[in-house]
Amino acid sequence: MKYAKQRDANEAEIVAVLRAYGCSVAKLDGAGLPDLLVGYAGQTILVEVKDPKKRKTGTAQSRNSIGGRGELRPAQAKFHDEWRGSPIYIVHSVAEALAAVPVAGTTEQ
């Protein structure tokens, strides 16, 4: 039996804010895939949402990731390592999501 992917508690708020700023947001499900596919102003951004309560500090970053690389599960780390597209952003908060997706009118750009 297949179960639905468990979402981080802060994901709903991040999705709501991104949509309020005019972003298209699709939730991705699949082994190792980032959580969100975000579209804004002709750009496509991959976003991995992590729970700030589970945040690890002092972790390395992969060449194409923003945020704590050590927080990734093995399948996620493999996807990040093999991804040849634009950076995958690891975010823990709305502020980090807005910094990853530079939407018009935000101060986090």
Helix content: 10-25%
Overall spatial form: globular
The counted number of beta strands is 5
Strand order of the largest sheet: 1-2-3-5-4
**What structural class is derived from the secondary structure elements?**
alpha/beta
CATH architecture field: 3-Layer(aba) Sandwich
What integer is the average pLDDT?
81
Largest sheet: 5 strands, mixed
Beta-strand residue percentage: 15-25%
Roughly how many Å is the radius of gyration? 13 Å
In the predicted model, the low-confidence regions spanning at least 5 consecutive residues are 58-65
The tally of domains stands at 1
For the termini, the CA-CA separation is: 43 Å
What is the name of the CATH topology?
Trna Endonuclease, Chain: A, domain 1
CATH class, please?
Answer: Alpha Beta
Topology record:
Blueprint: H1 11-20, E1 24-27, E2 36-40, E3 43-49, E4 65-66, H2 74-82, E5 88-91, H3 94-100
Describe this structure in words.
The protein starts with 10 loop residues before the first helix and ends in a 9-residue tail after the last helix. A hairpin with an 8-residue loop joins strand 1 and strand 2 (about 35-40). About 30% of the residues are buried. Mean pLDDT is about 80; it is low at about 60-65. It has a 5-stranded mixed β-sheet, covered by helices on one side. The protein has 3 helices and 5 strands. It has helices at about 10-20, 75-80, 95-100, and strands at about 25, 35-40, 45-50, 65, 90. The chain has a single domain, classed as Trna Endonuclease, Chain: A, domain 1, CATH 3.40.1350. With about 110 residues, the chain is α/β, with parallel strands linked by helices.
